[in-house]
Amino acid sequence: MGQQSTGQLDTVMHESRVFPPTPETSARARIKSMAEYQQLWDEAAADSPAFWARLAKEELHWFQPFTEALRWNEPFAEWFVGGKTNASYNCLDRHVAAGNGDRIALIWEGEPGDKRQYTYAELLREVSKFANVLKSLGTKQGDVVSIYMPLTPELVIAMLACARIGAIHSVIFAGFSAEAIADRNNDAQAKIQITADAAWRRGKVLALKQTVDEALKKSPSVEKCVVLDRVNEAIHIEPGRDFWWHKLMAEASDNCPAEPLDSETTLFILYTSGSTGKPKGIRHTTAGYNLFAKKTFEWVFDHREQDVYWCTADCGWVTGHTYVTYGPLSAGATVLIYEGAPNFPHEGRFWELIERYKVSLFYTAPTAIRAFMKWGDHHVEKYDLSSLRVLGTVGEGINPEAWMWYHRKIGGERCPIVDTWWQTETGGIMMSPLPGATPTKPGSCTMPLPGILPKIVDSSGAEVDATHGGWLTIAHPWPGMLRGIWGDDERFKEVYWSKVPGKYLAGDNARRDADGYYWIMGRIDDVLNVSGHRLSTIEIESALVSHPNVAEAAAVGRPDPLKGEAVAVFVTLRGAEPSEELRKELVKHVRTQIGALAQPDDVRFTGTLPKTRSGKIMRRLLRDIAAGKETVGDTSTLEDYSVLASLRSEEE
Ligand code: AMP
């Protein structure tokens, strides 16, 4: 039982496949070898403020140069002190000024198939106009603008318009309830709301404005609301409060110079709900975040001018902030965005888009990859995916078998896969392979990016050895790090900085193998404790997913008088029906894959697993179900409440 108190974990996974980059990929990459990566990493490790200062001077536009790279008053960081820049300028004006105004910035396809695209010069004009609209509604620097919109170009335009004038955006995913919007608006004291009449989702119309009307009844700080006409729905317009986007834009000037802003000006707040308690408003600031977004985008995707880049995330999540908006646009990339669902009107929609737009860099989530596998390969095989060059994943660990499917079926065994580990709090990618340099191992996010110093520790703060997992911490400040929780410094200190002195506590478990590769083992709170052995969720789940009939799996602990906890697994199937025989076979499969210790005591078949709206499996809820308890805690981020009900009814 000794390990229980130290935070160390046992590892049971054996994954030995290694995929080096092809010589062609390496030859044309920005970072061509592990030696080059190591050199950059060493430069950063030797003096990380100096390393980032060098990059900041090269990569961002400075209205006024900074005088100090980092002022660190743990846990409060200030990067590029004394400097003035503007994220909207870095994303737009900089490219136009460099003669690249005609380059395509955004390509958009709506769910019904409507299409639009914007060059950098056009996007700059639209953003400038909307910045003037915001000003005309009384928006001042430091005001919070709440955005609740479908994934349209106007969502990106609204974000960049805020950045242009120093207003703070708080994007709320357009699937959240009125209650969730009101909570976030009140916490942030939002002054302006931006929304749309409605949104398309799987052919249905979602009445966004109606939800916002409800929310605004409980959001007294909101004075004005701008409504995009997306679907042509009849909606309520509150005189004096609500305004149509197109009417205001028709009168707005397209001249709005970007405001020179102090480096540490808040760029955005993004609410993320921890496993319990009220959502935290994660605060990111201008210069450090912008630099980190740009450089990590360029390193990880090895972006080139001719690339067409598609990140499937919505701007309601941090991935849509950093890798739809600020990273790729700062890098001058051509970015595809798609409004709708991956299976509407058919299960091959994503592959159809890749073929149509010749997408070369593709970034999506493991939950989507598992769904594609379940839907079947024939949806993929109809389309030409030869334009693809680099594939990415984000949001959860990817089970090695899902990784192999992505590699074979989508990547044609030629595209490197970048499994990117990061969080809303980290602002950008912290660990990932580099396409031209890093040999990949399925299921590992491989190595830290330059300037990032992870340490795996036990609960006393001591580093654990390679045979064990422990808490993942980051030892040095980095420019993209969160600057705090909106309005709650105490909670910021408590959650991230109190348990391991001097280091940022990520809340994930991880292990580092003998080759120095990092493996994320799941959230600290999700660890299973079986007979004194602490096991990670992902290892058991990956063993299950390696069975040909398992589409998805979630492993949780359930109280057991003998073992402390028993292993309960929830499984969704592909190509098979639930049966007692299959149940036994899966138990045996896990035992042979990773050993008797991790063998499931309960196997439950289910049609779907409960997930957050961003696609992460909610193990906490399953734990309660496995233990036969009523569900407690915050379920406002749950994708589909009916999943819970059906899981309950599937209980014996
Ligand atoms: P969020 O801030 O909502 O994006 O969630 C961040 C969390 O997602 C991390 O703390 C991890 O638990 C998980 N996560 C994100 N990317 C990965 C990855 N590549 N591998 C494993 N877990 C991941």
From TrEMBL:
Residues 539-616 form the AMP-binding enzyme C-terminal domain. Its cofactor is Mg(2+). GO terms for cellular component: cytosol. Belongs to the ATP-dependent AMP-binding enzyme family. The keyword Endoplasmic reticulum does not apply. GO terms for molecular function: acetate-CoA ligase activity; AMP binding; ATP binding; metal ion binding. Acetylated. Deacetylation by the SIR2-homolog deacetylase activates the enzyme. ATP binds at residues 395-397, 419-424, 508, 523, 534. Mg(2+) binds at residues 545, 547, 550. The gene is acsA. Residues 95-486 form the AMP-dependent synthetase/ligase domain. Residues 37-91 form the Acetyl-coenzyme A synthetase N-terminal domain. It catalyses: acetate + ATP + CoA = acetyl-CoA + AMP + diphosphate. It comes from Lacipirellula limnantheis. Its EC number is 6.2.1.1. InterPro entries: Ac_CoA_lig, ACAS_N, AMP-bd_C, AMP-bd_C_sf, AMP-binding_CS, AMP-dep_synth/lig_dom, ANL_N_sf. NCBIfam families: Ac_CoA_lig_AcsA (TIGR02188), PRK00174.1 (NF001208). Keywords: Acetylation, ATP-binding, Ligase, Magnesium, Metal-binding, Nucleotide-binding. The modification N6-acetyllysine is found at residue 616. This is Acetyl-coenzyme A synthetase. CoA binds at residues 201-204, 319, 343, 531, 591. GO terms for biological process: acetyl-CoA biosynthetic process from acetate. Catalyzes the conversion of acetate into acetyl-CoA (AcCoA), an essential intermediate at the junction of anabolic and catabolic pathways. AcsA undergoes a two-step reaction. In the first half reaction, AcsA combines acetate with ATP to form acetyl-adenylate (AcAMP) intermediate. In the second half reaction, it can then transfer the acetyl group from AcAMP to the sulfhydryl group of CoA, forming the product AcCoA.
